[in-house]
Amino acid sequence: MAVTVLVGGLRDSKSLLLTPVDKRRRHKPIAIALSRLQAHGAPAWKSEGCCQARPRNLEDRSSDSDYADSVELQPELKRLKLRKNNWSSESYRFDEVFTETASQNRVYQVVAKPVVESVLNGYNGTVMAYGQTGTGKTYTVGSLGRDDPSERGIMVRALEDIISNTAPANDTVEVSYLQLYMESIQDLLAPEKTNIPISEDPKTGEVSLPGASVVRVKDLDHFLQLLQIGEANRHAANTKLNTESSRSHAILMVFIRRAVQENAVDEMISQEKASRADLPGRNSVPIVRRSKLLIVDLAGSERIDKSGSEGHLLEEAKFINLSLSSLGKCINALAENSPHIPTRDSKLTRLLRDSFGGSARTSLIITIGPSARHYAETTSTIMFGQRAMKIVNMVKLKEEFDYESLCRKLENQVDHLTAQMERQQKLLDSNKFELERQLRECQDSFSEAKQNLISRSEVVVSPRNHICNLVEECWPYYDEVFGEGQYSFGVGFKDLLDELNRRKEHGDLMHDKVARLEASLEHGKQHQLESSMYQKVLADTTQMYEEKIAKLIKQLEEEHDRGENAEEQLDAMKTLLTEGQKTIQQHEDAKFYISISTCRNYSDV
Ligand SMILES: Nc1ncnc2c1ncn2[C@@H]1O[C@H](COP(=O)(O)OP(=O)(O)OP(=O)(O)O)[C@@H](O)[C@H]1O
């Protein structure tokens, strides 16, 4: 089975699709690479075409005009027949034929909603209304429905859908509203901006209007206000055909920028990463889809000779016809898959170059009236719609890495981390202060403990001296009683014992204090460990103090041993003293006995 793919698009947009990937890679490697991946499954959509029959107005009624005079609407068959001399059997098929009673909501659902959905998915889209003056293009497309929301047209309903399907936190919806009047583009949101130049990117084929204002839409009310401003600024000139006729093409441009859900591009990224080693990490670079929706309310097509325009109005009509016929030629060329699409002939076709045919999903609504007087216009409108429906669009996604938002994200992270670091630095400073305070306390405690130990050793030394003095005191008696090499004690022994007990208690207290200091140092050590910055300082300090403590403990133990020795010596001395006292007593008794015996002897003599 042979399969033919018809690639349509205004000039250069097709060549963009058909340009070898590597040639374009030079310019925007990542965006192009992504669109290359998308291109594998790029959907092809036929341009949609619907026909809307405007309800009969007062003029139609007064002239007794009816559709039966010119066309036969067959909505159930999605067809209509044109009345020729006799009713021809030829009928024209549309994607939908709306009768006079069709609601604005139904028209939107069929004509514009699928395009809006595609735009929300990242494809460009265009909805365009074409028809003779006064047949209801502006009503269908641009009605604000101020008094009755059911009368809201495609522009309002499209934005309603877009706003409700985008998240302001991640996505942006922006609009430009312009009119093309006598080959001059004017900003309808800032009417002082006229003759805005069209810019075409030679590499991507993208059309833009750098001079036009682009307003970020906050909500539907905001958009309604913008539309109202645009409507007030839209130039309208009365013609003999319709007193409220728009003599310009109104173009609403909606720019959507959406953050892509991660899983939606997983496969695509992994394929791309496999071919590009230098591509940043999957989760590190957000991806955005940019799409553009154009809603175009074309100026009425009319035959100059019939409009009865003169002077300036005639000039207007000529410009309108120039742009519409140029659009018609482009559509014919696209429908015939012609190699040359004459987009340069008018600003309208230059402006629509990337939006009708080619890579955008498009939908056209043609509007017709019942008057047989305008049979020729009705016929040409129907033929225009039929040709436009032959165009096949190869739509493509425009997806790229969002380095801008990545940059913002990273900046935020840096800010966050800086603030966190500052907080931690403050905490460290306060910890440092606290630790320094604790260290000072420890140092004071140690000095105190050291001082205490020194005085304690003095206390230990002084009783020894005291004992020695006592021994010295007893020395003569001992020699007298026990001979050389022995000691004897004098009075003050009890005081000495008390002193030793006090020193023992004091020694115990010192023990406790040292234990507390050790605990405090341990605590300080824990603190210090938590703070890596001071860990080493603390470790050194701790080691130093541990050594000091060990030294002090050793001193204390030595003193304790000395105290115990002294105690033992004291016990021994106590025994010796008791014995010495006994000896002294015996000595005294002996002396006394001798003196009595001597006295007796004297008395006996
Ligand atoms: N479907 C409709 N239901 C009710 N009224 C409609 C409908 N279509 C058009 N009208 C009315 O017909 C009149 C002409 O419509 P409108 O101005 O939209 O035509 P137009 O094609 O935009 O004309 P022009 O090309 O001159 O701007 C308006 O008063 C409008 O309210």
Automatic annotation (TrEMBL):
SUPFAM superfamilies: P-loop containing nucleoside triphosphate hydrolases. One of its GO terms (molecular function) is plus-end-directed microtubule motor activity. ATP binds at G131, Q132, T133, G134, T135, G136, K137, T138. It is found in: Cytoplasm, Cytoskeleton. SMART domains: KISc. It comes from the Eukaryota. Interacts (via C-terminus) with NEK5. This is Kinesin-like protein.
